[in-house]
Amino acid sequence: MPQDFDLNQFKATYFEECRELLDTAEEQLGVLQVQLDDVDIETLHAVFRCVHSIKGGAGAFNFTTLISFSHVLETTLDLLREGRVDLSSDLVDCLIRANDVLGILVHYAQNEEEIAADIWQNIAHELEILSGQKPTEIAPQETQKATSSLIASLSDYNLSADEEEEQGWGLFLENISPGLDGDGAVEKDDQGWGLFADEEPQINDSAEITSDKPHYRIRFVPEPHLLQFANEPLLLARELNTLGHCHGVADLSRLPPLNEIAPDVAYLSWTFDLYTDHDLVDIEEVFEFVIDDCVLEIERVQDSAKDVAEDKLLTRPSTEKTIHKPDDTPEKSLAQTKPVSPSPTTPDQPVVAKHEGKKSNNDTVNTTTPAVSSIRVDLDRVDRLVNMVGELVITQSMLKQQADELANNAGLRMTQGFEELNARTRELQESVMAIRMQPVKSVFARMPRLVRELSSKLGKKVDLITAGEMTEVDKTVIEQLMDPLTHMIRNSVDHAIEMPQDRLAAGKPERATIQLRAEHKSGRIHIEVIDDGRGIDREAVKAKAREKGLIAPDEDLDDDELDNLIFAPGFSTAQSVSDVSGRGVGMDVVRRNIVSLGGRISVFSTPGKGARFVMSLPLTLAVLDGMIVKCGSEKYIIALTSIIESIHPLKEELKSLMNGDVLVSVRGEYIPVVNLHRLFNIKGAVTDPAEGLVVIVETERYGYVGILVDELLGQQQVVIKSLEENYDPIAGIAAATIMGNGKIALILDVDGLAEMEHGAEKRRKHAKLQQQIFLSGE
Amino acid sequence: MGLRVLAVDDSKTMRDMVGFTLKNAGHEVIEAGDGEDALGKLGDDRVDLIITDINMPRMDGIELIKALRMHNIHKSTPILVLTTESDNSKKNEGRAAGATGWIVKPFSPDKLLQVVSKVCP
User: How many domains does chain B have?
Assistant: First the structure.
């Protein structure tokens, strides 16, 4: 068995579980911080359970540091929930930090890295002081003990005589009888009889053989209630027999008349003669679970075994004797036992042999699987599935295209078949995508603590209200959401929220509120961060923008445009660089992150009242609804969500500028045209916008932009393959995909294209700005 | 010959380890995440052995044992509690509630099987 039992196979589950437990613990600790005055004991229980489970697993895998540290944490929590230590804000704060450290330790354990003691010892010490525990050494020592016992048990589980309590199990000697209800009891007693009757001849045989082995006489008198805990004397007798050769005699004196027999009362008692090389501790171990519910006397019989048969209960040639009464604590009786223990022979070997004997059972593999409502699947597998299904969609659409080319011959039934296939594949794809969907809760859950920590550091009073945590979004998006959101919340607490006295002076409630909400809107997820702080200071923004050369000195912008300048590269209105919002690169980085996800961000501000940041993100980063466009011999894909319309411009709607740029007039508005063929140096493409097609797209920074292409080829859902991961980032290209014919097509990054075109134009016009754009890395 | 065992623990790692060990030894294992889940999955179906953790959400191991001991069908089913060395008091609480025996976490597979054979015929 041990060779089958590879602990590593459980580690993945454990670490995954740890992460969930750490999150839950953090969430509950957050709740605790809020309920300081009126603590719900359940919250403490919940945190305790998390730490306890982490410790339990750590024990199994022998992560010693993790065991030590979680032990300290667990002890603190235990003291708290028993009410022996009062909860204080400092203590909760310390617990939250300790939970972080626990996370770090888990991380180290996962990577099998060495852990420097200073990572955890200080905080452990702090916890111990705050909770009034006896500090220091205790935990490490216990750990050592736990570890050593674990190692012992894993290697050969040699049951050391001094460590009975560490044997790791025991029986509450009470009742071992399955199916002991109604008439079953009589049957059970019958069985007990039967066994000993059956075994008697055999034992008599062996008595001679083993007469030279140490002889113990064991008197076992169960308390009447022993059976009620499902302990079974029969099994104890059987186990005794595995130690050596055993001869048992039942004492029927307590047995009432048949009609008075109660099914769950133990009437019988036994005297066993055991010939064994095992020592006393091993014999006591047999009775471990029942030790408190019986009278147990074990004595070493010194004289020859031959007289024993006659003596039975009458004579007591005892030289060594231990007696267990129910009121004895096991420890106490053990103490009595030790001095008189017979010199141990080598108990290890028989034990080991016994286990080898068990191996034969292991081949019988389980045939039934337990019913579970959810399963854990490796993300890679899901990704593979998503890719496969995506490609299935492509193949399907390609097939349809080919069938359409057969046109008239294909017939109606064929077309209908394709329609159905189309519907099914779509459905399949949606189901597969749904596997990866997760509630944004995992991201939102970290924000309360961020707000808490920041506000206490800055001396501000802020409440965070979250809504729509259960809104689901693809896992890839979730992963990317954390940084921008953290940044925005930080920004709000640091810059937008006023100090309490300033708020009072402005006639606002002392405590500020930040709302964080998520919702689904037209196939995208909208996330809003709303604060009731001071709003954006437009004059400061204007001054700063001029100073940085982001706007011309005489340029006049409306309020919205001014507000959105905070997303411009290199812009920050913070008076000084604070360690909270970092170096003030703030919002432009946020914007860039979000745009790189195919998202948009904008801000709506009311001076003195607060600001509302609105982010809109695609639900998934794995697939994209795209428009395939042709340019020369190349095919490109433009995300459908960014396309506004496509037009065939007339000659008179096109205006050429001095610098060679072309503008197209759409309903009286001039929109710059991006010459795709020029940017990508494509041969054989349409160069005159009047002959080609201009796809009007919406960009983040440049508003509407027209992209000149030869023609539109059709709409298709494509699987996104990251260029960064598979190749290198390319300006103007967001990602790649594989088409139905196996060829690679590039997905255009419309913002990047506008940037390239715009950049080229500006370079000609404005050397200073060009430098600015370069600095921003775009 | 295999036993039907109900393993109750809120930690999947522990359930996996108990489950794996027992299944490997030819037993059938039903898993439950807490006491309520366990009672729900059991219903009136007989199992040969119940192994339960103590610290669990919703319904903990102690309450589960009490409930089982009150139950007509399960009152004489052997119950083993999983405890850690630090909860000696829990062990006694388990005993008082009617558990048959205990196993200290962490346990080795052999130990688990040994204890199982100790309480199940």
Answer: 1
